[in-house]
Amino acid sequence: MNNLPEQGSRILLLSKKSKGFSQNFKKTVLLEKLFNPVGITSLILLSILIAVGISKFGIVFGALFLITVIGLPSVYAIVVYPEFGIMVLLIMAYLLFFLWRIGVTGPVGIIMDVIQALLMIGLLIRQKKEKNWEMLKGPVSTMILIWIGYNVLEVLNPVTEARAAWLYTIRTVAIVLLSYFVFLYNIRSIKFIKLIFKVWLALSFFAAIYAFKQEFIGFSNAEKVYLHSDPNIVNLLFIGGHWRKFSIFSDPVSFAYNMSMASIFCIALIAGKLPVWKKVILIFLVASFQISSLYSGTRGANVLIPAALLLFAVLNYNRKVLIFTCFAAAFLIFLINVPTSDPNLARFQTAFHPNNDNSYNLRKDNQKRIQPYILSHPVGGGLGATGIWGQRFAPNSYLANFPPDSGYIRVAVELGWIGLFIFCLLMFTALKTGINNYYLIKDPELKTYCLGMVLIIFAYNIANFPQEALVQFPSNVYFSFEMALLTVLLRLDKEKQEQKIMLITN
């Protein structure tokens, strides 16, 4: 008992020391930014440590040091602070191929898998504390789980000749959809949604500017090496004496589709209640996105905005929308039929006359040829049986040299008509949920955001017919984000309405 006062004084002393250390650390690092004797001495000692370590142990020491200093804090931040992790995921999805082309070596693709895995771990840890499973329920969540489960079971497909391809394909086809639950659970404020939108549009503008650079200045040395690394790349991207541009993306198709989706979102925002100066900026962005997209030579992207505008007119039928739709239709008809010698505009026009295009007719013939196989294989030929993975793991199989082209055809061939039915049901559920929530949401700002997401998901479904629109970064990650936002926006709107009711009643 006599030791209690002494113990109390020790605790008080330790508390003061801890507080003093915290204040000193804050002053040294945060306020003075290491520009003081302690900071300079620490940096000098750290520099000596790095120099000695690299000289003695080589680059291995440097790599381990970077992992320790940058990697471990990043891992901690992604798991503990999901908003930070989400921003890292969305930015990396956009810049993934750009980093690879400018010379960043290493398994950049695996980094994306690690980020998604860390976000899922963070979700499970947070869910263990909160135990709020209601946030993860809903028709879209159910269909995504069914879709992922079906793809996982495809590893047991008895007729597949490229079983090893399953491991390489399931990542982009199904597993990446798990990020839907990360977005659904961790996006909880309008402020964070606005930040994501701003970063997304900034990245899209950077992609557009980079395409202008490729068109008028030329490709970088690294890009030239890539373009001439394979004769198939030249055959695909060099058309009519003109190189198709891919900007910061994997290919021209991915570039054009992402520009179209950003344009559609901007158009939805323009239709909302915004100051005039913001609408002017959005119009400028749409013009930048669409002009740069022409350099990709991707005809399938040219029909996406007209299709989205058609759905927009249906969902928002009024006099102003009808007038705007008529003007837009007249301008589109003019562009389709105006005589031109510009190769980019000429290729744009062919998108609206597909029967006159040899490549489109060839795709139709291929689809007709594969129909008996689809009907006779209800679970398909196995995930990854077509395309590069089929050629790598089963080069002599019937499907290895079949060019699926269309995302729907690939699903039908690899996963069968059962898989195609599940996939179409997932898309239908997402659109139905989005349209219902659009009419349920009362807040004008959130309503506009929901409209934008519905139009983008609708456009992606159209884009998935002539090309594979949903399996490449960044489209696969952003598609999950856009589907999650349909539910998140309704949840935020309900919270906002409840707060209004509480203010009125109090």
Short structural summary:
This protein has helices at 4-31, 37-57, 59-80, 82-101, 108-130, 139-153, 165-173, 179-186, 190-216, 221-227, 231-237, 252-270, 276-294, 304-315, 319-337, 343-350, 358-376, 387-393, 407-440, 444-463, 475-505, and strands at residues 238-239, 242-243. With 506 residues, it is mainly α.
Per DSSP E runs of 2 or more residues, the count of β-strands stands at: 2
Sequence of secondary-structure elements: HHHHHHHHHHHEEHHHHHHHHHH
Shape: globular
Please tell me the total number of domains: 1
Compute the average pLDDT.
83
Radius of gyration: 27 Å
Distance between the termini: 52 Å
Helical percentage: over 70%
Low-confidence stretches: none
The assigned structural class equals mainly alpha
Largest sheet: 2 strands, antiparallel
